[in-house]
């Protein structure tokens, strides 16, 4: 997770605004899309940091790229641009998602399995592990990993729960070798 104080402050301010206007989910979804744009287009960040391009031109570019975005999101992008903080956009989105998840009692989780999980299995994993970490539910991303042989590996933040067959075999091997 991000350790940027600046990103946290901007994220908290936008979260409070979104909360007051009942738009947390909409803004979170738009921010995740913006994050994806910045991750896939490194040239965009370089262009926005180019000193030869005026702030007005950069704002026009952002307004054109994200013209369907929520006004609060657009305003925040303009503020980041004006304050020369566009390099914080990815950290900012991560911070916003973390704040929104905490407020909703939700945690993001990655579940590695040998096959796609059913809706019933996903719900069971969510309810079981959400209680263990003090959350109401988990937002699960299922990742197929045939190297697990069987079982699942669950990652919530920096916690890993490994009940996969390959994990058990590795632990057994370490115990037998004695290291």
Automatic annotation (TrEMBL):
First-listed, main subcellular location of the protein, grouped into a coarse class: membrane
Per the record, membrane topology reads: Peripheral membrane protein
Q: Which residues cross the membrane?
A: none
Q: What does this protein do?
A: F(1)F(0) ATP synthase produces ATP from ADP in the presence of a proton or sodium gradient. F-type ATPases consist of two structural domains, F(1) containing the extramembraneous catalytic core and F(0) containing the membrane proton channel, linked together by a central stalk and a peripheral stalk. During catalysis, ATP synthesis in the catalytic domain of F(1) is coupled via a rotary mechanism of the central stalk subunits to proton translocation.
Q: Which domain of life is it from?
A: Bacteria
Q: Which UniProt keywords apply?
A: ATP synthesis, Cell membrane, CF(1), Hydrogen ion transport, Ion transport, Membrane, Transport
Gene3D superfamilies (alphabetical):
N-terminal domain of the delta subunit of the F1F0-ATP synthase
Give the matching SUPFAM superfamilies: N-terminal domain of the delta subunit of the F1F0-ATP synthase (SSF47928)
GO MF annotations in UniProt: proton-transporting ATP synthase activity, rotational mechanism
Where does this protein have coiled-coil stretches?
A: none
Which cellular compartments is it found in?
A: Cell membrane; Membrane
Its protein name is ATP synthase subunit delta
Lineage of the native species? Bacteria, Bacillati, Bacillota, Bacilli, Bacillales
GO cellular component terms, semicolon-separated: plasma membrane; proton-transporting ATP synthase complex
PANTHER family cross-referenced by the UniProt entry: ATP SYNTHASE DELTA CHAIN
Provide the family line: Belongs to the ATPase delta chain family.
